[in-house]
TrEMBL record:
Disordered: annotated span: 46-67, 91-190, 285-310
Subcellular location(s) of the protein: Nucleus, Nucleolus; Nucleus, Nucleoplasm
Ranges of biased composition (kind: Basic residues): 290-302
InterPro entries, per the entry: Nop53/GLTSCR2
Biased composition annotated in UniProt, kind: Acidic residues: 117-133
Keywords of this entry: Nucleus, Ribosome biogenesis
GO molecular function, a single term: 5S rRNA binding
GO cellular component, one term: nucleolus
GO biological process assignments: ribosomal large subunit assembly; rRNA processing
Biased composition (Basic and acidic residues): 100-112, 134-147, 173-190
Family per similarity comment: Belongs to the NOP53 family.
Protein name: Ribosome biogenesis protein NOP53
Organism: Musca domestica
């Protein structure tokens, strides 16, 4: 629980609640009293990683057969999982597309761009022939139509038939009314039947509701468990994400049986450094190697030189001192 700084300063803690925490903090700052804001992560652990994890028994310089085989099987299983993931990524990315040469790509592009051009030419020729035939037919039909219009000009006729006001008889309206009443009765009967069926399956509905509620509770428990587990996982403090280092293992032909001839795979400093990263103490970093320092050419100031001494004389003096130091070291 967070400790209230007002309890240490007399006069800032009010039992009745008249003095708020903000007002007390303001007065404490004005009076020159130290007010520190502590992060919540200091009061509780952010990871369950141990400070020191005992090594696997199979990594001993003289392990038992079962421990050594178990270590090798665990490493093989882990490597197979990594290889499987890499194959999956390669299958869904690189191998999804067919590899073609530049010439094949060019010919395929030309074929796709010119697709349908021959068919369009044939269709244009067919359209021209059809238009000519239709033009001849229209001319002939125009002549015949003119003659027919001249004959029928005397008689008047409409395109649509005349509208007739057909009213329903009383018997037809009664039949329609009886059909509507019968339809209402059937719908009411169906609704009543559905209600009775629902009442009969109350137990099954209750079991379905309970099953759904249980499933939701299980999902909530899994979610809370995942959140609680994530709370103690290694956090990403920087740009890079922490990855577990590879397990050290010696093959059967590399086992020496004594500490003098054993082959060391890692160092204690690297192990402690990785442990600090795992426990959220240090951010994950990458070894950049030795950085080259630029060579800076230095010159003494004119005010610091003795009169009559040139830069070349100073350089020769430095080179002579350097050569003498090298000879003395030998």
């Amino acid at each position: 629980m967070e400790e209230d700084f007002r309890e240490k300063v007399p006069g800032l803690k009010d039992e009745k609640g008249w003095i708020s925490e903000e007002l007390a903090k303001y007065h404490a700052q004005k009076l020159g009293l130290p007010v520190y804001k502590i992060h919540d992560s200091i009061r509780h652990k952010t990871t369950k990683a141990k400070k020191f994890e005992p090594p696997h028994p199979g990594t001993s310089y003289n392990p038992s057969l079962q421990d050594h085989q178990k270590l090798i099987s665990d490493i093989v299983e882990k490597e197979e999982k990594i290889i499987k993931e890499e194959k999956h990524l390669k299958r869904v990315t690189t191998q999804m597309f067919r590899k073609v040469t530049a010439e094949e790509r060019q010919t395929q592009h030309l074929k796709e761009m010119s697709a349908g051009m021959d068919d369009d030419d044939d269709e244009d020729d067919d359209d021209d022939d059809n238009e000519n035939e239709e033009g001849n037919k229209d001319k002939k039909s125009g002549k015949k139509g003119g003659e027919e219009n001249a004959d029928d000009s005397a008689a008047y006729s409409t395109v649509n038939p005349p509208v007739e006001n057909k009213k329903k008889s009383k018997a037809a309206r009664n039949r329609e009314l009886r059909q509507k009443e019968l339809q209402k009765k059937l719908e009411a009967k169906k609704a009543l039947k559905k209600q009775i069926a629902d009442l009969n399956r109350i137990k099954s509905i209750k079991s379905e509701v309970l099953a759904e509620e249980e499933e939701l509770n299980e999902a909530m428990k899994r979610r809370k468990k995942a959140e609680f587990k994530k709370k103690f996982e290694t956090k990403r403090l920087g740009r890079l994400k922490f990855n577990e280092p590879d397990q050290d293992v010696n093959m059967p032909d590399e086992l020496a049986g004594n500490l003098r001839n054993i082959q060391t795979g890692t160092s204690l400093l690297i192990d402690r450094f990785k442990n600090f990263q795992k426990r959220n103490i240090l951010p994950v970093s990458v070894a950049t190697g030795k950085q080259k320092k630029p060579k800076v050419k230095r010159f003494p100031r004119s005010s610091h030189k003795e009169p009559g001494v040139s830069y070349q004389m100073l350089r020769d003096k430095r080179m002579a001192e350097k050569k003498a130091a090298q000879q003395a070291a030998k």
